[in-house]
Amino acid sequence: RLTVTGGGWLVERDALSFKVVNARPLKSVFALVRPPDELRAFKVEFEDNGSVTYSSSDRDLVLGSLLDACQSWTGSRSSQVYVTAEVTDGLRLTPRFAREEAKKATSKLEDVASQFFDSGTVE
């Protein structure tokens, strides 16, 4: 099979007939997994929990090109494509599409005071 990117899609084509076998939007790529013990293999994980495993003698070149394509196509979401050496499903408690919201750091005293007093009553 041949794997190509274009128009915001990751497309797999049959090597003989060039018919499309599989197509996924680049914006749905969640992680690129590069196992350290397999020199040719890599995995592309998607936000819908799907994944595809590939093998290439130029694995690092392909991963770099794929990451670049994801970053250029997704624009502001570019920081959401993870590159890791391990499969990301291990101990996930939240779905892949969930994003953590940043919280303002507060002291424990402020937390306790806010539970007992109105903000206008504490001096």
Model description:
The protein is of the alpha+beta class and 123 residues long. It is 20% helix and 28% strand. The protein contains two helices and seven strands, in the order ββββββαβα. It has helices at 59-74, 108-116, and strands spanning 2-6, 9-13, 20-25, 29-33, 41-46, 51-55, 82-84. The strands form two sheets. It has a four-stranded mixed beta sheet with strand order 6-5-4-7, covered by helices on one side. A three-stranded antiparallel beta sheet has the order 1-2-3, with no helix packed on it. A hairpin with a 7-residue loop joins β4 and β5 (41-46). The chain starts with a strand and ends in a 7-residue tail after the last helix.
Keywords:
123 residues; alpha+beta; 7 strands; elongated
Task: Produce a short descriptive summary.
With about 120 residues, the chain is an alpha+beta fold.
Topology:
Elements: E1 2-6, E2 9-13, E3 20-25, E4 29-33, E5 41-46, E6 51-55, H1 59-74, E7 82-84, H2 108-116
* Number of beta strands: 7
Flag low-confidence runs. none
Task: Tell me the span between the first and last alpha carbons.
Answer: 70 Å
Average predicted local confidence, pLDDT? 77
Roughly what percent helix?
Answer: 10-25%
Query: Sheet bearing the most strands, described?
Result: 4 strands, mixed
Q: What proportion of the residues form beta strands (DSSP E)?
A: 25-35%
Secondary-structure element string = EEEEEEHEH
What does the radius of gyration come to?
21 Å
Structural class estimated from helices and strands: alpha+beta
Mass-distribution shape:
elongated
